[in-house]
Design brief:
The protein has 187 residues and is an all-alpha fold. The chain has 8 helices and no strands.
Amino acid sequence: MTGPHHADPIEQNIETHPLKLAAGIAVGAVALIVGIILLVQFAVGAYASRSLKDDPAMSDAAVAKRLAPVAALAIDPNAPPAAASPAATAVAAAPPANAPAPKTAQAAASGKSTFDAVCTACHGTGVAGAPKVGDRTAWAPRVKSGKDALYASALHGKGTMPPKGGNPALSDADVKAAVDYMVAAAK
């Protein structure tokens, strides 16, 4: 005996049927992807069809300017220092390399300026074990070894410190003045 067919709420509301919902999502996703592909094709076709022959933005100079690096960093510790003005060169003329370092206020100022320009990068912060300027405990054994040993270390390099602090253009007198300045600060 077959009875009357009972109504199923899912069959009556076809909009909430799981297969219908899954099919709708799949069709929508495919339509979205096809739409994006067509939009990209249209944009590329419109852009590619224009002529750039007489466009000033495509000139050789403009292209070279756009492709040029933003900045260049060149550090060569063996390079000579930048040329100073003739007046500054005449005022800051260094004594010969074999001349002893003068013990004047000018030598102290030269030692401080050399320290500020070259030595402070390591001796100001203690980088790579460099004794900080003014640190009496770190400088005591070095001062005890004598100034000649300190001069030799500064002029020829020691450990990670390169000769003349990495600036070969410095005169021996400038390096010795910087050493004198750091030793005086540690006393």
